[in-house]
Amino acid sequence: MSNETRKSETYFADQTLWGFVHRSFTKSIGYTEDDIKKPIIGICNTFSELNKCHSHFNELVEHVKRGVWQAGGTPMEFPTISLGEPYIKPTSMLLRNLMAMDTEEMMKAHPIDGVVLLGGCDKTVPAQLMAAASANIPSIILTGGPMLNGRLGGESLGACTDCYRFTLEHKAGNLDGAQLAEAENAICRSDGHCMVMGTASTMASIAEGLGMALPGCAAIPAVDSRRRHMSQMTGNRIVQLVKENLKPKDIMTREAIENAITVTMASGGSTNSIIHMVAIAQRLGMKLPLETFDEISKRTPFLLNLRPSGQYQMEEYFEAGGVPSLMKELEPLLHRECMTVTGRTVEENLMDVHVLDRKVIFPLTEPIESDGGIAVLKGNLSPGGSLIKKTAVSKKFFQHKGKAVVFDSLEDMKKRIDDPNLDVEENSVLVLKNLGPKGAPGMPEEGQIPIPQKLLEKGVRDMVRISDGRISGTSYGTLVVHISPESAVGGPFGLIENGDEIKLDIHDRRLQLLVDEEELEKRKSKWVQPEPFYDRGYGLLFENTVLQAELGCDFDFLLPKELRDELKSNS
Questions:
Q1: How far is CA 374 from the centre of its chain?
Q2: 272 in the Ramachandran plot: left (φ > 0), alpha (ψ -120 to 50) or beta?
Q3: Is 20 exposed, middle or buried (0-12, 13-18, 19+ CB in 10 A)?
Q4: Digit-coded pLDDT (tens) for 72-97
Q5: CA distance 127 to 133
Q6: Can you tell me whether residue 138 is helix, strand or coil?
Q7: In sequence order, what DSSP letters do the residues of 190-204 get, joined into one string?
Q8: Burial call 330-355: b when 16+ CB within 10 Å, e when fewer
Q9: Cβ contacts of 531 within 8 Å, gap of 6 or more
Q10: Which of 232, 266, 246 is nearest to 363 (CA)?
């Protein structure tokens, strides 16, 4: 039990004018004198009717409140912006940092001693973890849980892996409009976020791997009664975290981050998680180079048989034991001494855990693949690094050389991709420029470049596709993304021309443009930087301060001072 004065006490025990105001205004909304003497727990409710993944959060909040009251705390709910992936244009990534700022400032500005952060959809959990790292008051993550599996004709469906599949087959002429509508009605059949190992499920798993969510939280389906139980337990536990004065920086250590990366690699998790983990680490004052991810990937077997890299989905993962069971299998590779929000170490949390289904979670000694799901690629095309989810790649493309078919922008790609006169064949490399943080803007999830119509009709379903943008964690195929530096800041990726040969070697972790340096220098001398998209407001702030992908796409001014100073000295 900590003897440190709680933040709420400095508000409500104060005998000056402002103490009077704080007590009077708080009592006027129904709280009593006894209530304001207890630990005040903020509940960050990101419910929004514009965020399908959070549609059930108002109910979960009530269960959190019950847990807080039972543990002797006083709950106070507050809102922040809510980022729903399907709707936000040009991309929710444009607003992740805004949500992180909103959450951090709400946490710091109010008389709350601890906070429960309710997230789920892709950018919400990373934004909340970034905020928790910066505000550093006792915090715990509660994710909303995945949807139930979609069902159609006896087949199990997953959003949005099957969204891509159905629309692709419709484009190829294999499904009519009525069949497509039937699939639309069948794929999302409950509350919750995407039920494959996409970004939402990956970030929920990372929250557990970091020790910032209670064990088992990530995989419980949104509509399962045990999600309500988890909400109540989370409300109960945050009160204890306040009493123990256990803060995010006590939990999110470098070793904990390495544990979270290990869980991600064993899961075949989303490439987006790399950007988010870098941003979280930097908020904690740590540099997290891409090489660290690749080193951990090389020593971490791929164990989780989940789509889009496997056969099953989050519902089966929950039944197999969820993240605790995967971590139990990974235990020899983890830092077991790391403290978690349970008040116990990783090793203590895993003491009585077992794997319940070996079809879903493979043994460490008999993995699906010998190394992890994401590979970091370097080379003259991406000196700052790029990523590929190799567990979702067609094996024939692990080593590939092909001629570039270049699109200079998203608009250019949409205009020409299905042109019957497009000079493209199955072994071509589709290249999409100006899709990065500054160039798009916001680095949208458009890196799953569509297969050209004329190749679809011939049965082609995968090609090598390269961009400086992102992909959904639910995507599949041979997709190289997060090329850095991006085209819009003068990176070599912006110098590719039609017909250039590109060599991809996933085994060797290389991505090379087979053009000599003299020619590249000529092209660079003619390169013209694109005009900025914004002339005011948040968009201008984003364009002026966002960092490149390997630095987490955070705003430079949000980094701790020592990292800002180092960044300036290296620029």
A1: 14
A2: alpha
A3: exposed
A4: 999 999 999 999 999 999 999 999 99
A5: 10
A6: coil
A7: SSSB-SSSSHHHHHH
A8: beebbbbebbbbbeebbeebbeebeb
A9: none
A10: 266
Give the integer Cα–Cα distance in Å for 482 and 466. Answer: 9
Strand pairing class (40-45; 74-79): parallel
Return the number of other C-beta atoms located less than 10 Å from residue 137's C-beta: 18
| Nearest by Cα to 391 from 496, 304, 500, 495 | 304
399 forms bridges with which residues in the sheet?
505
Alpha-carbon distance of 360 to 198, in angstroms, equals 16
Q: Concatenated DSSP letters for 50-108?
A: T-GGGTTHHHHHHHHHHHHHHTT-EEEEEE-----TTT-SS-THHHHHHHHHHHHHHHH
For 417-455, give the DSSP string: TT-TT----TT-EEEE-S-STTTTTS--S--SPPPPHHH
Which parts of 188-253 fold into alpha helices (H)? 199-210, 225-244, 248-251
Helix (H) or strand (E) holding 114: strand 114-119
Q: What angle do CA 127, 107, 85 make, to 5 degrees?
A: 25
Say how many residues make up the chain.
Answer: 571
Could you tell me the CA-to-CA distances from 253 to 136, 288, 372 in Å, in that order?
13, 12, 22
Q: 452: closest CA among 481, 430, 475? A: 430
The tokens for 570 are: 């290296």
The two tokens of residue 483 are 């090329």
Q: What is the pLDDT of residue 474?
A: 86
Q: How far is CA 318 from CA 65, 217, 218, in A?
A: 25, 9, 8
Residue pair 197/270 in contact by the 8 Å Cβ criterion: yes
25-77: pLDDT as tens digits: 999 999 999 999 999 999 999 999 999 999 999 999 999 999 999 999 999 99
Strand ranges across the sheet with 385-389: 374-377, 385-389, 479-484, 464-467, 429-432, 399-407, 501-505, 510-513
- Cβ partners under 8 Å of residue 432, min gap 6: 407, 410, 413, 446, 447, 449, 465, 466, 467, 468, 469
Hey, is 243 helix, strand or coil? helix
Q: What share of the chain is helix, strand, coil (3-state, %, to 5)?
A: 45, 15, 45
Instruction: Find residue 465's DSSP bridge partners.
Output: 430, 479
Give residue-wise pLDDT tens across range 398-438. 999 999 999 999 999 999 999 999 999 999 999 999 999 99
Give the contacts of 272 (CB within 8 A, at least 6 positions apart).
122, 199, 202, 445, 470, 471, 472, 473
Please tell me whether residue 473 adopts helix, strand or coil conformation. Answer: coil
d(CA 267, CA 296): 13
